[in-house]
Amino acid sequence: MSNKKRGGTVTATMSVIRNYEDIEIEVFGYFNPEQNGGWDDPSWSAYVDFEGANDADGNAITLTDDEIAYAEQKMLESA
């Protein structure tokens, strides 16, 4: 039997600098597990689609492209 991870929502915490202050945020996205395709289906490696980030109070935080890339990496590690 295969021990494949299932797709779904994944979260992680990370720090970002805002107004010269280091704040901890929660990032969330959708985990897409690796798929080995066949004759008709494509193959792909596991990845995460970034959906958003919130501060400790639940307020939405806008991230830079570099921060989003790091957030996706952190979520993939925790998936």
Task: Give a written overview of the molecule.
The structure is a single chain. This protein has about 80 residues and is an alpha+beta fold. The chain has one domain (about 10-35, about 45-79). The chain has one helix and three strands; from the N terminus they run βββα. Strands 1-2-3 form a three-stranded antiparallel beta sheet. It is elongated, with a radius of gyration of 15 Å. It starts with 7 loop residues before the first strand and ends with a helix.
Quickly list its features.
79 residues, 1 helix, alpha+beta, single chain, 3-stranded antiparallel β-sheet
Total number of helices: 1
User: Which geometry do the CA atoms define?
Assistant: elongated
Overall average pLDDT: 90
Class of secondary structure makeup? alpha+beta
Strand runs, count: 3
Query: Tell me about the biggest sheet?
Result: 3 strands, antiparallel
Distance between the termini: 20 Å
Strand fraction equals 35-45%
Strand order of the largest sheet: 1-2-3
